[in-house]
Predict the 3D structure of the following.
Amino acid sequence: MGAATTNGPKVRVALDGVSETLLWTLYHRAMEARRPDTVLDDPMAVELLDGIDYPFERRFGKADMGSAQGQALRARTFDEEVRAFLGGHPDATVVALGEGLETQFWRVDNGRVRWLTVDRPDVIALRRLLLPAEPRVRLLGCSALDERWLDGLDPARGVLVTAQGLMMYLRPSEVRHVIARCAERLPGGELVLDAIPRWLSAQTVKGRVKTREGYVTPPMPWGMDASERWKLRGAHPNITEVRDVALTRGRGFFYAHVAPHANLIPLIRKRRPSITVIRFGEGAATGGPR
Ligand SMILES: C[S@@+](CC[C@H](N)C(=O)[O-])C[C@H]1O[C@@H](n2cnc3c(N)ncnc32)[C@H](O)[C@@H]1O
């Protein structure tokens, strides 16, 4: 089934601040997905992009194919983690925090997974308008910081939480809060998140990350250097593992030979964007620190 916009008129979208960033990621992912040699098979993202009335190029600039491939590879790396989790827990629930207009469900669906999309109410309304309803997909308009999304999940079937392109927009204490609540409430579960390095976070906070067209990236107050990932373990005693995930291999010299091995390359290994999986022990520590 295609995006709801496939045959109708374009849908006008007006978002600002952090919510608008979902159009940035969609734009880049879809521009990559429409290439014949794409690294991300995602026709629905392309349909979505084509069905939205928004000045993508005027606002964000011509899609730089390096960034577009980078966004798509990040999505594919998350897909691989979701597929691996579903391999061991085919009836699991995937909770996609800050999912924006991601179309990951349609890329990884195994016919059994249950899906919970969590984002701001205005974004959820947009998702309802633009993407098809699915019987196994539930949408919840609330903050990732609101514990309501954790209610009613069944850890016995397996719960995987993803936070793709979300955590950097939160404050450091809020990131720890989300991780700790997952550790407390989701025994046996996992959380996959990505982080930007501290130097880049500092640049966004100063308003220095902008395009030639004048689009200024909103502040991203949480930065984590890949070398300090181990500190995440301190968020809750029920965290049993914190591991680095290499970016999946892409096209061209950088994405085929450099980015997938970034954890081994001295000059970039410590201060690079990174993807991390956090695993929670089976024994729930429900009364843990708050
Ligand atoms: C950069 S976009 C990423 C969207 C999507 N995950 C992707 O990769 O395309 C950031 C998303 O996080 C959402 N977001 C920001 N703060 C949030 C919060 N506190 N709770 C839930 N979602 C939030 C925004 O609305 C937006 O959809």
